[in-house]
Amino acid sequence: MMQVITKDEIDLKPHIFIKDFLQGKLAVYPTDTIYGLGAIATDNRAVKKIRDIKKNNLPFSVMVPGIDWIRENCHVNEEAEEWIKKLPGPFTLILKLKKKTDISGYVNNGLETIGVRIPNHWMQRIVREIGAPIVSTAATGPDGSLIEMPEDVDSRHKKHIQYFISERLMLRKPSIVIDLTKEIASIVRK
């Protein structure tokens, strides 16, 4: 059953939250843009649960532990380096993966690309401590609207979500998505 918690509660016992994430638990969590629905991106079972909740085949983005993860796991050209310098921030950078096995195939449906995020938000510290990427897809209600409160979560999905980390959000609009898989960057979503 979904527990509503705050940043202060996580700060008191971060090891419990991190352990649950590493064990494949799902959470709705705040970022510098909107609430995300996530789980450890290397766990097929956990990512499949998110896929079942979202009921779409669009690739998911991931919050990564840091810039080093991006450079170690993705192909980074000069244009990508320029965007990486803007991190942390409200950007999702689409890059080619070096190895598809670095994440669950359910994250990007077997594509050779991945959307990576490093938000300017305290949640990034948790991802760094986890040391692995977590799925970062928009948390949406049954009608597709963005979730802003625990009550917005579909009651059918609450049994699959361990935590809802409640916080007042700043932007309330999704990240800007930049495709860096070609020589010239293109903005996919503003």
Offer a quick outline of the entry.
The chain has 190 residues and is α/β, with parallel strands linked by helices. The chain has seven helices and twelve strands. It has a single domain, classed as Alpha-Beta Complex (DHBP synthase).
Second rung of CATH, namely the architecture: Alpha-Beta Complex
- Main beta sheet strand tally, sense and closure: 7 strands, mixed
Uncertain runs are: none
Alpha-beta classification: alpha/beta
Share in helix: 25-40%
Task: Indicate the CATH topology.
Answer: DHBP synthase
Indicate the mean pLDDT: 93
Count of all domains: 1
CATH superfamily membership: DHBP synthase
Rg from Cα: 15 Å
Order of helices and strands: EHHEEHEHEHEHEHEEEEE
User: How many distinct helices?
Assistant: 7
In angstroms, what separates the terminal alpha carbons? 35 Å
Shape: globular
What is the beta-strand fraction? 15-25%
| CATH class category | Alpha Beta
> What's the total number of strands?
12
Tell me which oligomeric state these chains represent: single chain
Describe this structure in words.
- There is one protein chain.
- The chain is of the alpha/beta class.
- 27% of the residues lie in helices and 23% in strands.
- The protein has one domain: Alpha-Beta Complex (DHBP synthase), CATH 3.90.870.
- The protein is built from 7 helices and 12 strands.
- The strands form 2 sheets. Strands 4, 5, 6, 7, 8, 11 and 12 form a 7-stranded mixed β-sheet that branches.
- A hairpin with a 6-residue loop joins strand 11 and strand 12 (186-189).
- Helix 2 crosses helix 7 (123-130).
- 37% of the residues are buried.
